[in-house]
Amino acid sequence: MIAFLSGRVAARGIGTAVIEVGGVGMTAQCTPATLAALRVGEPATLATSLVVREDSLTLYGFADDDERDVFERVQTAGGVGPRLALAMLAVHTPDALRQAVAAEDTAALTRVPGIGKKGAQRIVLELRDKLGAPTGAPGTADGTADTAAPAAAAPWRPQVVSGLVNLGWSARDAEAAADAVAPQADERPDVAVLLRSALRSLSRA
C-alpha cells in the first residue's frame, strides 16, 4: 500500500494532482478542498489510499490521515465505492460525516450527489459503529463551518466550478451555484467553504 506521497506538486487539474516523487509523477484523485491547498512547484504531502481493480490502479490523495481513514471506512457501507466516498468528503469534513452518522442526519448525507434517502439510511445503519464519535473539531453536518484546506491563491470561482463539474453537475448548474455563493466571498475566500455552500444551493434547487 502507498501510505503517502511527499514531493513537488508537478500539476493540478480538475479532481487530480500530480506529485513528483523521485523523478516519477504520481497522479492522485483529490477532493476540491485538498486541491485548493496545493501549489504547483511547491512541496506537498498527501495521505493516500490505493484502490485496486482488475483493470486499474487508482490513487486517492487527502489532506491528512483522518480524511484518508474516513474515506476507507465509508466504503465498507453497501453501495459506497471510492468515487462516492470522495464525493462525501467533498461535501462534508470527516468530523461532519461522523456527526451526521451519529445523529442519523440523513438529510445531511443526501446533500452528497449520488446518495438518496434509502442510501443515506443504509449508510447510517452500516457506519454507526465504524466512524467513531465526532471529535468536536469545527465542521458541522450542514457545512456551516469546516476544517478544510486554507484558501487558494488563485481566484475561487474556477475552482468551485471545476469542483462541482467533477462531482457530476453540469457546467451551467455549476456556474449558477457559483453565482449564488459569490456574495460570501471576500478578499481571501475559502474555496472549501464556498464549494460546500454551492453544493447546498444545488441540493435545495
UniProtKB/TrEMBL annotation:
Superkingdom of this protein's organism: Bacteria
Region (Domain III): 152-205
Gene3D superfamilies documented for this protein: 5' to 3' exonuclease, C-terminal subdomain, DNA helicase RuvA subunit, C-terminal domain, Nucleic acid-binding proteins
UniProt GO BP: DNA recombination; DNA repair
Pfam name, any one: RuvA_C
Location in or out of the cell: Cytoplasm
Record key words, sorted: ATP-binding, Cytoplasm, DNA damage, DNA recombination, DNA repair, DNA-binding, Helicase, Hydrolase, Nucleotide-binding
Keyword Transcription regulation: no
Name the UniProt record assigns to this protein: Holliday junction branch migration complex subunit RuvA
